[in-house]
Write a structure and sequence with these properties.
Length: about 220
């Protein structure tokens, strides 16, 4: 599943511009008073102004051999989130390793290196090494309802999990990470999972607003 663009909402455009441009060094591709967007591999990550927002979670695919280089790069710029005193999570069954950090809105961001994508890098890690957006999270009280709606837009396979607490839809290239917010918190921070608004474009095109999916062309 290809994710071409994710738009999140923020009440802090200035702070998010500072974080992604100055702290992380992401390339700006759009910059207005109410919206800013950054190039992340073949994807675009945008932030649009909204007075009230809730934090969310998304991930970026990076080359499989770059995870520890990316961790060093990240620690030079911001704090890496640890779980059980470890900064790198080994998702053995997914054949992937991941590191996590917050942005200015406390969105939980993730660099994930997947063996099955089989892309390696022979240069030092920079934002240019990011392959693209690989995961968009959805917190809901009904995983099955969200799955059924996405599946009516276009059939999608279950990558991992079930309709109880956690379900990943898609493939290694792109995933929806759906959790039941009444039963599960975000890993690895254990933050409360809020239902957060976003807009996605790519193989699936819809707005997720107030917990409801609204298709867009």
């Amino acid at each position: 599943m290809i994710i071409e663009e994710i738009t999140l909402f923020t009440a802090n455009i200035v702070e998010q511009r500072q974080f992604y441009k100055s702290t992380l060094g992401f390339e700006i591709v759009e910059d207005t008073t109410n919206r800013i967007a950054f190039k992340v591999g073949y994807s675009v990550l945008a932030f649009q102004y909204k007075e009230e927002t809730k934090p969310s979670h998304l991930a970026f695919n990076i080359p499989y051999n770059a995870i520890y280089d990316a961790l060093k790069w990240l620690r030079d710029r911001t704090e890496a989130i640890q779980y059980n005193n470890e900064a790198v999570t080994d998702f053995t069954s997914w054949k992937a390793k991941a590191i996590y950090f917050y942005d200015a809105d406390r969105n939980i961001l993730e660099f994930i290196a997947r063996e099955r994508i089989d892309i390696e890098s022979d240069v030092a890690f920079t934002p240019r090494a990011i392959i693209g957006i690989s995961e968009m999270a959805i917190a809901t009280a009904s995983i099955e309802k969200v799955y059924n709606h996405i599946n009516t837009i276009k059939p999608i396979s279950i990558f991992d999990g079930d309709f109880d607490r956690f379900c990943a839809l898609g493939d290694d290239v792109g995933l929806f990470i759906i959790i039941d917010k009444t039963k599960k918190k975000w890993y690895p921070t254990m933050d409360i999972a809020y239902t957060s608004d976003f807009i996605i474009k790519g193989d699936y095109n819809f707005r997720f607003i107030n917990g409801e999916i609204k298709e867009i062309s």
